[in-house]
Amino acid sequence: MKILVTGGAGYIGSHVVRQLGEAGHEVVVYDNLSTGHRWAILSGTLVEGDLADGERLDAVFEAHRFDAVLHFAAFIVVPESVAEPLKYYANNTRNTLGLLERVQRFGVPHFVFSSTAAVYGMPEQSMVDESAPLVPINPYGASKMMSERMLMDLGVAGGPSYVALRYFNVAGADPEARIGQATPDATHLIKVACQAALGQRERLQIFGTDYPTPDGTCIRDYIHIEDLARAHLAALDYLAGGGASAVLNCGYGRGYSVREVADAVRRVSGVEFRVDEAPRRAGDPPALVADNTRIRRELGWTPAYDDLDRIVADAWRWERKFANQ
Ligand SMILES: NC(=O)c1ccc[n+]([C@@H]2O[C@H](COP(=O)([O-])OP(=O)(O)OC[C@H]3O[C@@H](n4cnc5c(N)ncnc54)[C@H](O)[C@@H]3O)[C@@H](O)[C@H]2O)c1
Ligand SMILES: O=c1ccn([C@@H]2O[C@H](COP(=O)(O)OP(=O)(O)O[C@H]3O[C@H](CO)[C@@H](O)[C@H](O)[C@H]3O)[C@@H](O)[C@H]2O)c(=O)[nH]1
What is the CATH number of the domain that holds 9? Predict the structure, then answer.
């Protein structure tokens, strides 16, 4: 298939682009390199451009006849979305609208969208399935929920068949460490803990130790980037085979606490880095774990890296290599 990948130079997009290349697909990446990197694109060609640049986007759609669009490009920092909401609605929602206008105008048959567990907000139960109410508690989650809604309405009106993948906590790196999380000032727990173990950060802070969980710290469902990337290829196969539009959680269905993650990073790295207890971070639900029944059923997706130490080992390997680049 010939596939347009927006945000293909970023952390998740670049892993998917690599796997698409390995599977023999033809890839065109559209990315403004605001947080992505040219070196991370291991397959296909890059068109450097902003999604807000309608003329440039039109030119890409005129030059190629795409079988599918995979849409990763977005801003992703939750606290920033609270401070600057319109920045998030502009890039995540308005730019998705502009992209969907082209998808419709040029008759692209399939669309895969990067959604997030943040659409669930503070769920009543820690294990959530796709039918849980969508009550995002920050503009980032709301911007993604609105995009999901546009996609759904367009689908009903004869638009592309689509899969919206709701990612839980994405972590780890390419097992061969060619690419990995490379965003400066990343806030993701496993990356921060690896940076603390490397001495790039003074310490790891645990945000909140008084949650109603067994050890008092928040529980999340960490999914290895390789398994998450594989879900996108499975979604493409599913849509190309005539599968109906679907919204699917991406997670392992099992959670780990912040303390358990810190212990795993110590164990894997062999470094006793400093860990301090700190107040809760605003907007963190106590526990968020994916019910992944639907993605297993609809896509036949089965994880291959469902092991916290494996996720941490690949993240650690990448961080060490990246630090020495
Ligand atoms: N990382 C996670 O844990 C996580 C969890 C849930 C959902 N997601 C979603 O996955 C997607 C990818 O996230 P990521 O972690 O790879 O982030 P990232 O910042 O590494 O990648 C985003 C990419 O999009 C590009 N981009 C941003 N705005 C653009 C624009 N206007 N025009 C062109 N390119 C633009 C950036 O340069 C970058 O390459 C996002 O949609 C995000 O909301 C990520
Ligand atoms: O230095 C740190 C960083 C994080 N945490 C905690 O670790 C957990 C995970 O935090 P983080 O890695 O920042 O991920 P989340 O806040 O759970 O959000 C991620 O996962 C969401 C889906 O669940 C995505 O929508 C977001 O984009 C992505 O950042 C949370 O309890 C944090 O409070 C710490 O204690 N210390």
Answer: 3.40.50.720
Q: Which residues does a 6 A CB cutoff place in the pocket of ligand 2? A: 76, 116-118, 168-169, 187-189, 192, 204-207, 218, 220, 258, 281, 284, 288
* pLDDT band at 79; cut points 50, 70, 90: confident
Could you give the CA distance from residue 303 to residue 307 in angstroms, rounded to a whole number? 10
- Number of neighbouring beta carbons within 10 Å of residue 297: 11
Residue 237 has pLDDT above 90, yes or no: yes
CATH at residue 261:
3.90.25.10
Q: Are 104 and 97 in contact (CB under 8 A)?
A: no
pTM for this predicted structure: 0.98
Judge if 149 and 200 occupy the same domain: no
Are residue 160 and residue 281 in the same domain, yes or no?
Answer: no
| Closest ligand 2 atom to 278 CA | 35
Q: Which of these, 128, 154, 133, 114, lies nearest to 245 by C-alpha position?
A: 154
pLDDT tens across 268-305, in order? 999 999 999 999 998 888 999 999 999 999 999 999 99
Does the Cβ of 170 fall within 6 Å of ligand 1? yes
How many separate domains does the chain show? 2
CA–centroid distance, residue 215 to ligand 1 (Å): 32
Q: Do both 215 and 238 map to the same domain?
A: no
| CA 243 / ligand 1 centre spacing (Å) | 26
Q: Are strands 246-250 and 222-224 parallel, antiparallel or unpaired?
A: unpaired
- Catalytically annotated residues: 140
Over residues 65-89, mean pLDDT: 96
